[in-house]
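Final report, closing paragraph on structural work. Over the funding period we assembled a curated collection of sequence-structure pairs, and we close with a single example.
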Amino acid sequence: MNKITFLLTSVILLLVTVGHAHAKKQPNVIVIMTDDQGNNLGYLGNPHLKTPNIDKLANESIRFTNFHQENKCTTSRASLMTGKDSFRTGAWRTSKGRSTMRTEEVTLAEAFKAGGYQTGHFGKWHLGEAWPTRPMDQGFDDSVQLKTGGIGQIADYWGNDTMDDTYYHNGVPKKYKGYCTDVFFSETMRFIDEATAKSDKPFFIYLAPNVAHLPFRVEEKYSQPLIDAGVNKKQAIFFGMVHNLDYNVGRLTAYLEKQGLAEDTIILYTTDDGAAGASFIGMGKDHHVTEGWNMGLRGGKGSRYEGGHRVFANMKYPQSGITGDNNTLIAVKDVYPTLLEIAGVDMPKGVKVDGRSFAPFIKKPLDPENDERPIFINYYNPKKWDSNKFSSVTYKNWRLVGGTEFYDIVKDPGQKNDIAKQHPELMERLNAEYKEWDKVAQVHVRNDVVRFILGDKQHPEIVMTGQDHWTNKGCNPFSQGSPRLLQTCNGPLKVNFVNSGSYTVTLSRYPLYTNIPMRVNVRKVYGEKVYKSEFDVKHARLVIGDKEYNKTLKGDEKSVSFDLKLKSGEMDLQSWITGTFLVNGEKKVKFKEGQELIVPGYFVTVKYNG
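Its predicted structure, as stored:
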């Protein structure tokens, strides 16, 4: 190598080195979304709560004070993961077969993973319980999943009660020691340890603790001081769950500091909808809180009023150097494009989101009065498709509720004074815009079906539960109490057999791993006290498409299986189990001695044999 070549090579290497030194490092990103917490935090004014760690995080964050979720947990989570209005995703209700997200959606995790990130999910998902809709199928490298909407719901691991529970680590059930929130935060830190040890790639984490959703349980050290101070017991437990959450936020932020990751990590912390009723005890028929604290807002979880969807959202963004209140009007669907933009990750090819990035408004907030975008939400009800009872339109500082009520949210944050008669022209305009949005939504919610995929060679066994019964009217077997109490609600499961061949379809009252006979009525979990009543099962019926299958039962079966030859195709699958209710001396029972009952197979396991 001559001197000139050597000199040029040295200069190029120097320039490359300098370029790398000045290259912007992609930030780590953690999204924390709690459940049913509402605005119950110390710094927001709740007189019963002391949340020093969360308050500190808020002080170090950009506080988006005009942030709007959709008004239920599944819908908000679907919107977060896709950047779309939930009706487009398939997951627009918490049950009735409409809580599973379309596999075609490109999730936030998939986008970050394609952008070079390591991805982890810890806690609640509620967007699909079976392959290919689980977190591990939707872009997460590592997942510790609480199945379905909450502890004690039907797809949750049988017998979970918030302490020493079993969750699904990358699809495999695993027992964890400790309180649920402690576990999900510990697993988050475990993932960060492993991710940073094996690679210098940044990480994206969706941390979704199930607090403060039912069941209301927490260690007494968090709730008893409130009870001793005279706070209602249920309310004290709810607040105790938030106190434990604060402890864990402190653990996580201290850990990030210790690991030298704090300045390189964005933390977005919010909750999925308004507060559960236990936080304020009393609410009138008009959705005004009659007893307790709700930050002065009207309504709680599920409400079309401000208390149902306007929640805190704080983003610690060290690289921006910005903190303090930001009143830009933001929807949960905006999080997707925003995080991708500030992390320097490309929008996935072909993906069109409904949200808009609020990155431009971080340094210079957008006054709502200068914002022409309306935000529409409606929690659609299959019982009455056209109802806009749960709809709201957020526009500037106006709120259109249910199409008929109108409020100035600046002058009247508690939505006490309906001023519809004073603004007929604006109401007419917003109603017209809502109807155009609703036309599109109606097409999706009435016609889109997200089916269970059965018969895949790599995933031959799929378990389905009563929560996914496709019904437009009536109830779902939603909780673990449904099979215990012999709830008779029924409906078809929407399925797609992707291969013709041999299948085994197994119906059971309880999950197969519990090994509990269908005859036995258990209280909460096998091994606990048994009711004196029994269900003497006699007959099982199964309908798949236009074919019907029947079996006579002896009464002591733990399950009933049908070995079938089935053709591929999309169809409905529905099951019925008939039996006689036997009291045997039980005093408080719902049914009469000798009464015949017809219930669904609460758990349906389909295995493809080839």
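The chain has three domains: 24-367, 378-447, 452-608. The chain has a mean pLDDT of 93. We thank the funder for supporting this effort.
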